[in-house]
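Re: weekly structure request thread

Next one in the queue (245 aa):
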Amino acid sequence: MDCLQMVFKLLPNWKREAEVKKLVAGYKVHGDPFSTNTRRVLAVLHEKGLSYEPITVKLQTDEHKREPFLSLNPFGQVPVFEDGNVKLYESRAITQYIAYVHSSRGTQLLNLRSHETMATLTMWMEIEAHQFDPPASKLTWEQVIKPIYGLETDQTIVKENEAILEKVLNVYEKRLEESRFLACNSFTLVDLHHLPNIQYLLGTPTKILFEKRTKVRKWVDEITSREAWKMACDQEKSWSNKQRN
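Done, posted below.
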């Protein structure tokens, strides 16, 4: 019996029952298939091979800022994840919930071997959320989202945030000299959480920041080539074809 099988065996009964139930019932995901935060959740669902019902929230018409959506998330942000009576928002909380409930299924996205490995994984998830995401999200907004809305990119903001991102990627380059992935030598939620912004930034001049760092480039190539991520980015397969008529 390997380590993960042992962990599953020791799981409380409610957790095992919840996993079996959700394999049958599926989930609901309220969001937009082009939203970085929605894609983060879709990636985990595909890594785990889980069914779900996508429900489109029209961001361009501010549907997320009005009822009935505000009854799901009073902060007016996508995605919202429904699991029966459980309603969750904040994409990273949702991914952790799915990865924990389905820890025995699909890709093992949580490192459960010890307190130390879990602490390391948690630390790198915090680094992604507080060090990488702020500049990466601003760069995505300026160079990808604003042009969609017919708005002009502010090159001053781009320069400022590229400088911040460079410092973060310097830390990543050093870390990836020691480890295949950021938290450990296997793909985890840490790496997955980076994917939405990285994917968009690879289509902008900012991609050079990833490409000129050997270890970072190799890491980016590996995580963006995952089949689950390709599915999450495919609007037809991950969203439109799954919607109820």
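Residues 1-11 have pLDDT under 50 and may be disordered. Residues 115-230 form a domain with the Glutathione S-transferase Yfyf (Class Pi); Chain A, domain 2 fold (CATH 1.20.1050.10).
Next request, please.
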